Histidine kinase
Amino acid sequence: MVLVVFLLAYLIRRRLDAVNRGVSEPVWRAWFQWGRVSRPGREHGIGRGLLLILVPAVAAGALEYLMRRAGLSLAVYPLEVLVLLLLMGTPGWRPALDAYAEAWARGDMQAAWHHVRDRLPPGERGAAVSPEAMHLSLCKAMLVTVFQRFFLVAFWFVVAGLPAAILARGLVALAEHWPQAAARPRFARLAEYAAWLPARLVSLTFGIAGDLAGWLKVARRALVSGRARLAEVLMVSANGALTGYALDPDRFSRLHPDEWPRFGGNSLSAIRDLLNRTMLVWLCLLALLVIAGQI
């Protein structure tokens, strides 16, 4: 039932994203308001934040256990679907990316930046950056966001169940929304640890779902480096798996100057297609594990 539960949640979540519904970020922010007050000098503490994601994870695990003990095993599956719907999703991204691509095609880079500035990493939101740097920053943010909202949740749900998925996604939420900004880098490091293995699995799957020959040229750098950050692993492996210089705007502009107005939209479409194919590969592998009786 793991495959059925995740597939159902994934399909519903994609539909909700298409209509910009089911935003879970306000829920995380409201829950983390319990940590808005901190003693002077203790702003770096992460104990309270970890407790706040441990509580729902333990509660979900306990509820599942009690429901199964009470003979309500079938009722567990709708519960898992509902929680996965809350954990996954990137609502709001598609309209922003569509508007960005249209502005890029018009050559209005300032408008393109305004459409996606809130999606960019805080340190990379400068309005004066070049179009190439802006686009790479957006692509990196897109890859990391989709990974954290879908692949990270999927990996830990399959491997260790719903509580692990809540903890992994909760670490990401803490790094983004914890009221005490001084503690966010520590939560981000913990989220990096949780993403280490699934990120390399996604990198491997990029090669299967994309250009295998190109991916093999960068596979060692993406997979073997133990110190490579999540964003670097995803960007390097995606760049190798994509054709047409979709993640190399400098080279594209030199080789195809006449097609430059279409580069922004085509590049984003290529990344979305790669991510969709990668998830399809994951679902196929999960189905094979189910058939083999490993899950």
